[in-house]
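User: Working on a comparison across species. This one is Fumarate reductase iron-sulfur subunit from Phytoactinopolyspora mesophila. Can you predict its structure so I can line it up against the others?
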Amino acid sequence: MAESITLEVTRYQHDVDDEPWTQEYDIPLRENWVVLDGLNHIKDRLDGTLSYRWSCRMGICGSCGMMVNGEPQLTCAAFLFDYAPGPIRVEPLANFPVVRDLIVDIGDFMEKLPRVSPWIVREEEQPTSEGEYLQTPAELDEYKQYSMCINCMLCYSACPVYGIDPDFVGPAAIALAQRYNLDSRDEGAAERLETLIHPDGLWACTYVGECTTACPKDVDPAGAIQRYKLSAAIETAKSYLLPGRES
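Assistant: Here's the predicted structure for Fumarate reductase iron-sulfur subunit from Phytoactinopolyspora mesophila:
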């Protein structure tokens, strides 16, 4: 096995470059190294001008998402040996504007996320003296899978609908809406449905499923969206058949 591997890294500075370009770096090929280790080696030893995001290095923060050989990946979980003998192409996440090198502008995602109220909504809080809102294990299981989202945006990068229609609210936002809809403590389902029933909401999803394939936490955004579509269709039918009913 070779002792080194080549990273083909996208470089771009908006005030200097007319378009992105590729720079090659030879880095050590070590068994326990991931792509992020290779980028850190470049930054520390070869080229301090390289720009990218990372934080926890444990697959928790979601900040080190990039395209690795054309696929959205958390670079802290993409082992160099899996791509040997290389080269390994490292690019910024697709479907987002590039700020510099491997850093993308996440402003669109951050603007869309609060639209679905990804928090517990209640009309009235119970008195503090009554303690916690208790849940059964079955109630927890209803939404637990969807609560694992780390907002890494890999699903947005993989989503062909978001790629051609940036108005689409996107898979992570819809999956998080469903996570709270399924929470027994929440009362905000009707409010979220009002937001997501529009053409750029859940009905824009064509169920390609790439979001689920890309998700590093097995959240299954595609499954959450289809489940949400079913509940939305039922609620819409009820509103026509039973006008004036309260949700």
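For your comparison, note: The radius of gyration is 21 Å.

User: Helpful, thanks.
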